[in-house]
């Protein structure tokens, strides 16, 4: 059977199957939550292949236009680590002792922090880059987010090379709990995605949002134990750090990969629940807002 | 695909089982003030999320109805034309049908795969090769990798890209990129194709190929919604049409009558159509540059003034001139544009190129351009008349004179493919054995 007739048969099968109608009306979707969740799940499954395509497209385009290529994923962490080690060794900053060698501590933590920030920026970047497509084609909107998250994990994969090199260089022991580290990392990424996704609709309308995010993350970095260890004492600073949801997730990932002793399991589970529930809520917000965003960004 | 409201499965009732798209009382508000529009967007999202969206049938400040109570149905294998001026809401309607934006009132029901040909080459990345872009683009249009693999060769062949398929798209000519976009979109084999002014891609040969392909997929049962300013394109493809003006449905029904109504409105709103003899204001000898056009009229074979030429009949274009000075060589030319085809220039007739310039004396002069048979098809045209000296020095110009060509004897077929009327005879020579 040649290709053409085969395709015609496929086509007729498709036609005979078609009994489903897509209905577009002004009614709010939120009033039918069960169906909404069902459709969200269906679209998530449907968007996997497209997300993969977009991921391949974006990554190949990115590296074809770059001379240093994957080094850009590593360089920021190395530079930050180098400058803080220099500052610390010369007594410019006063940082308490860390349970890991300090340069390794900063580089590893910085890598985790970067992954969090990338996850935070991913949804807005995805929507902004996909504006032209969003305005013209009705594809599962989840694909944009999935492909960006894929990119976050891809970048982390490159950073992993750096992390492994650090472990070897500083002869750091690895406990068996390292196999659980990816779980904590996923929760960290989920937290970033939650914040990013809930801001994405507004971020697509107003440029201010990405400006605020850039500003906020650079400040946020200093409220998270990335370049310094978790402070033991109280005080306002200690409290802020404790209530920063990034802290338990980032610290636990680090601890699982290195010492294997989790200092704040309760904090970890609270932050994880916030991330996962928040992510679901943000997803609903994102889905429901999308037609309104498309309406405003493209006439 | 995203469903803007929860999906319901409706068994189509037997009498309208062939309906694939139904637009019922659809209205949509728009706002041209950007800041306000963004704010309304936030307001709508908030309303939608809480489920207490303010009733959307009231206009807020600076809003207007981009679409107001539009109704129509599309059956399987049918083609529907959307005509209307820019800003009449055609594209908005297409975007609601595609499920990109929600209607403020009313409902759209649609079944099967909808492919918007609004979006040629959406998601093309100039850095990547044509091959990679085909995969990305068709994937966005909703095909699985397996389906793309099956169609890949056809797409490349149709787009006439050849060897360049493995070069980055940024090295392509604009025509090549457009062809690739069209080829990718058309090979998704949609059930409903939304076409928005895209039939103008590529050169004439490729356009013809696109039209053939469209006919082919239509004969396989796909339905079209076609948006165009080009009335001829609509006439050639669509059985039924809807005429929108400022978001209102002015007319719907058979394409013929809808298009006629649209054209009538279009020209009435803009300018009076010329009938009978038209006089132009007389210039003072100082304002005049030597020779002035005084009047224009059509005359029939007996020299009587007529309101409009008839297809296939004798007509003469008569221009009355007043000459203020002796001129060695004066010539006249007529440039005619077809208003039903995007005001495209279709005919230029010049007495200079025909080597019929004359010397003038002071006084009055009537220049007659005699056409033994009017080849122009019925429709509305715009004419410019230039009265000139040889070195392109214009004495007087009449820039836009609208006139009609009528076909009272019904000798032409109303068909988008006939660009002009050719006089003809049929003859049958039979030989008996």
Automatic annotation (TrEMBL), chain A:
Domain of life: Bacteria
GO molecular function, one term: ABC-type transporter activity
Residues passing through the membrane, by range: 67-87, 102-124, 145-170, 176-200, 212-230, 266-286
Protein topology in the membrane: Multi-pass membrane protein
ABC-2 type transporter transmembrane domain residues: 52-250
Pfam families, per the entry: ABC2_membrane
GO cellular component: plasma membrane
A GO BP entry: lipopolysaccharide transport
Keywords tagged on the record: Cell membrane, Membrane, Transmembrane, Transmembrane helix, Transport
Annotated coiled-coil segments of the chain: none
Cellular localisation: Cell inner membrane
Family: Belongs to the ABC-2 integral membrane protein family.
Protein name: Putative ABC transporter permease protein
Naturally occurring in which organism (per UniProt): Hyella patelloides LEGE 07179
Lineage of producing organism: Bacteria, Bacillati, Cyanobacteriota, Cyanophyceae, Pleurocapsales
UniProtKB/TrEMBL annotation, chain B:
Gene Ontology molecular function: ABC-type transporter activity; ATP binding; ATP hydrolysis activity
InterPro entries: AAA+_ATPase, ABC_transporter-like_ATP-bd, ABC_transporter-like_CS, ABC_transpr_TagH-like, Bact_Polysacc_Export_ATP-bd, P-loop_NTPase, Wzt_C
Occurrences of domain ABC transporter (ranges): 52-271
Pfam family, one: Wzt_C
Keyword Transcription recorded: no
Signal peptide feature range: none
GO annotation, cellular component aspect: membrane
PROSITE patterns with a match to the protein in the record: ABC_TRANSPORTER_1, ABC_TRANSPORTER_2
Keyword set, alphabetical order: ATP-binding, Nucleotide-binding, Transport
Family recorded in the similarity comment: Belongs to the ABC transporter superfamily.
Protein name, per record: ABC transporter-related protein
Naturally occurring in which organism (per UniProt): Hyella patelloides LEGE 07179
């Amino acid at each position: 059977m040649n290709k053409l007739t085969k395709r015609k048969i496929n086509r007729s099968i498709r036609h005979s199957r078609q009994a489903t109608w897509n209905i577009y009306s002004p009614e709010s979707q939120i009033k039918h939550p069960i169906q909404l969740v069902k459709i969200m799940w269906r679209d998530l499954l449907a968007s996997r292949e497209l997300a993969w395509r977009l991921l391949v497209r974006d990554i190949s385009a990115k590296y074809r236009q770059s001379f240093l290529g994957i080094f850009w994923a590593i360089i920021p962490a190395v530079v930050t680590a180098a400058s803080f080690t220099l500052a610390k060794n010369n007594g410019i900053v006063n940082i308490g002792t860390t349970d890991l060698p300090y340069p390794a501590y900063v580089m590893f933590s910085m890598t985790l922090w970067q992954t969090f920030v990338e996850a935070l920026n991913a949804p807005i970047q995805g929507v902004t880059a996909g504006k032209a497509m969003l305005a013209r084609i009705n594809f599962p909107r989840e694909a944009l987010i999935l492909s960006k998250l894929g990119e976050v994990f891809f970048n982390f994969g490159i950073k992993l090379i750096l992390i492994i090199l650090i472990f070897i260089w500083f002869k750091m022991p690895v406990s068996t709990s390292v196999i659980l580290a990816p779980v904590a990392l996923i929760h960290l990424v989920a937290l970033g995605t939650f914040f990013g996704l809930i801001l994405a609709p507004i971020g697509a309308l107003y440029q201010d949002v990405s400006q605020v995010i850039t500003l906020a993350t650079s400040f946020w970095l200093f409220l998270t134990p990335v370049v310094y260890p978790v402070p033991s004492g109280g005080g306002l600073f200690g409290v802020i750090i404790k209530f920063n949801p990034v802290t338990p997730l980032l610290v636990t990932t680090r601890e699982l990969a290195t010492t294997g002793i989790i200092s704040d399991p309760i904090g970890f589970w609270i932050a994880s629940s916030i991330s996962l529930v928040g992510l679901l809520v943000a997803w609903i917000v994102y889905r429901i807002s999308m037609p309104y965003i498309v309406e405003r960004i493209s006439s | 695909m995203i469903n803007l409201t929860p999906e319901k499965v409706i068994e189509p009732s037997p009498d309208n089982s062939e309906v694939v798209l139904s637009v019922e009382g659809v209205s949509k508000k728009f706002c041209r003030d950007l800041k306000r529009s963004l704010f309304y967007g936030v307001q709508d999202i908030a309303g939608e999320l809480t489920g207490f969206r303010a009733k959307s049938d009231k206009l807020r400040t600076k809003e207007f109805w981009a679409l107001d109570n539009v109704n129509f149905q599309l059956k399987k294998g049918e083609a529907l034309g959307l005509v209307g001026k820019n800003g009449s809401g055609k594209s908005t309607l297409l975007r609601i049908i595609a499920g990109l934006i929600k209607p403020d009132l009313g409902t759209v029901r649609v079944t099967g795969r909808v492919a918007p040909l609004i979006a040629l080459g959406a998601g093309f990345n100039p850095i990547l090769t044509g091959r990679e872009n085909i995969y990305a683009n068709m994937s966005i249009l909703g095909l699985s990798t397996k389906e793309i693999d099956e169609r890949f060769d056809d797409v490349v062949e149709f787009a006439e890209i050849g060897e360049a398929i493995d070069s980055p798209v940024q090295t392509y000519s604009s025509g090549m990129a457009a062809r690739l976009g069209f080829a990718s979109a058309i090979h998704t084999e949609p059930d409903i194709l939304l076409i928005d002014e895209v039939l103008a891609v590529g050169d004439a040969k490729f356009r013809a190929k696109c039209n053939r392909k469209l006919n082919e997929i239509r004969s396989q049962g796909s339905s079209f919604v076609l948006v165009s300013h080009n009335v001829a394109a609509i006439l050639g493809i669509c059985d039924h049409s809807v005429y929108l003006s400022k978001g209102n449905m002015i007319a719907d029904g058979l394409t013929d009558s809808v298009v006629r109504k649209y054209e009538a409105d279009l020209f009435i709103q803009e300018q009076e159509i010329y009938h009978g003899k038209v006089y132009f204001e007389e210039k003072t000898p100082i304002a005049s540059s030597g020779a002035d056009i005084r009047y224009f009229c059509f005359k029939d074979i007996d020299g009587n003034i007529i309101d409009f030429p008839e297809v296939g009949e004798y007509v003469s274009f008569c221009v009355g001139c007043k000459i203020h000075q002796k001129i060695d060589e004066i010539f006249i030319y007529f440039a005619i544009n077809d208003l039903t085809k995007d005001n495209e220039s279709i005919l230029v007739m010049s007495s200079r190129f025909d080597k019929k310039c004359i010397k003038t004396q002071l006084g009055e002069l009537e220049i007659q351009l005699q056409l033994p048979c009017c080849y122009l098809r019925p429709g509305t045209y715009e004419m410019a008349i230039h009265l000139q000296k040889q070195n392109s020095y214009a004495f007087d110009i009449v820039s836009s004179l609208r006139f009609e060509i009528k076909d009272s004897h019904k000798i032409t077929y109303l068909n988008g493919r006939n660009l002009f009327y050719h006089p003809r005879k049929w003859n049958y020579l039979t030989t008996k054995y």
